[in-house]
Amino acid sequence: MKKVLVVEDSKFFRNILKNELEDLNLKTTLASSIKEAEYYLNKEHYDFITMDVNLPDGDGLDFCKKLKQSSKFYKSQIIIISSEDSDYLKKASFDAGAFSFFHKDYIEGNLKKFLKTTISMAQIITGSANPVVIVEDSEFQSRYITSLFDLANISVISFKDTTSASDFFSNENAIDLIIVDYYLQDNTCESLIQLIRKNKFYDKVPIIVTTVMDEKEKKYDLFLLGVNDFVEKPFDPSEFFLRIRSHLRIKSLMDMLDAKNKLLSIKAITDELTGLFNRRFFWETLTSEDNRAKRANQAYSILLFDIDNFKDINDTYGHINGDKVLVTLSDTLKKHIRKFDTLARFGGEEFIMLLPDTPKNKAEVVAAKVLEVTRNIKYDFTDKMVTVSIGIADSAECKAFEEVIQKADERLYKAKQNGKNRYEIE
């Protein structure tokens, strides 16, 4: 549950804010002064802070800037609340690092809607498997942008100058997005963008330039250099998330297209007999999924299964028919798995399946389906039923993906010991 700290000296508005926030299932703490707010902030982290401008012991904007400059508190998103509604105050709020600005007369219904939309947009930014790079000479601005990505659970690599950033981009580092300030202390961003685009490794990575300028000719020149988009400071977080989501989604689709094209040309990742993915490709996929699942705080499951009495099939009916069992089972199972699951031949008569975003209680349903489908396959060389035994494990019960496979293997052995043609989940 996300937490919100309300800093407001008016009891009336504190209650309005409390009702708005608790409707969103946000855990709300109330403070009537800066001193009281500091007390709560030193006790625990708050995802959001609503801050009145005029507080009895200080200025809310000054306190906002202080928090956003702090390495301890900068990740909290601050919403300025005021009874004034001037453009000057709005600009001063964003200059202080505020996430948003609300007039007190506009709070009821609208603050709730804003937060619900913003949280939803942050949560649906799922296209980033790699970090985002920020090149920004202002530590204050860098922390502000980082805090927005933190809200979306996206990791960030930061640089303050073109020199250190150039060293990074001279090598091949897996990233999904680049955000660079136009005006940097040691240069403009133009030379850095040229360097990035010269490295073919980054040719599909979107670049967004943040700027206070609105010069069409400069923007046109940057587009020609390879910039994909511009965000003018101060920027609206909702618009920011929409732009980020769009660019990350395009990058993800391009990566998927590249991956599929490579799959067509690289036979090394498929098993020659069954046409399933091979062990090597499965390990690479599992490594990637393990990293993604940890960032998203999601569990994945592994199904490890083995054809029962396969040696007897080979000895009785011959290896040609044994191969026929392997091929027929593989072809049948491929028709029954989800598009985002990965099925591979793990070796001999052993198969393995990766189920992303699937805890083992849901993987149990898949295992039952595998058993049913396998039992119903008919072979032209025998009337006997061919079965499999399955071991199930998920990442929630293990620290590393190697342990997930080990647990699945132990449970596969247990299924064999307990009579075969079954699965074990514990």
Give a quick precis of the structure:
By secondary structure, the chain is α/β, with parallel strands linked by helices. Helices cover 46% and strands 19% of the residues.
Give the tags.
Rossmann fold; Alpha-Beta Plaits; 3 domains; elongated; alpha/beta; 15 helices; 5-stranded parallel beta sheet; 426 residues
How would you explain this protein's 3D organization?
It is elongated and about 85 Å long. By secondary structure, the chain is an alpha/beta fold. The longest helix is centred in the middle third of the chain and has 29 residues. The strands form five sheets. Strands 2-1-3-6-7 form a five-stranded parallel beta sheet, with helices on both faces. It has three domains: 117 residues, Response regulator (Rossmann fold, 3-Layer(aba) Sandwich), CATH 3.40.50; 127 residues, Response regulator (Rossmann fold, 3-Layer(aba) Sandwich); 158 residues, Alpha-Beta Plaits, CATH 3.30.70. The mean pLDDT is 90. It has 15 helices and 19 strands.
Number of strands: 19
Q: Helix coverage percent of residues?
A: 40-55%
Q: Residue-averaged pLDDT, rounded?
A: 90
Largest sheet: 5 strands, parallel
Beta-strand percentage range: 15-25%
CATH architecture grouping of the largest domain: 2-Layer Sandwich
Radius of gyration: 28 Å
Any idea what the CATH superfamily of the largest domain is called?
Answer: Reverse transcriptase/Diguanylate cyclase domain
Number of H/I helices: 15
User: Briefly, what CATH class of the largest domain?
Assistant: Alpha Beta
Unreliable segments (pLDDT under 50, ≥5 consecutive)?
Answer: none
CATH topology of the largest domain: Alpha-Beta Plaits
Distance between the termini: 30 Å
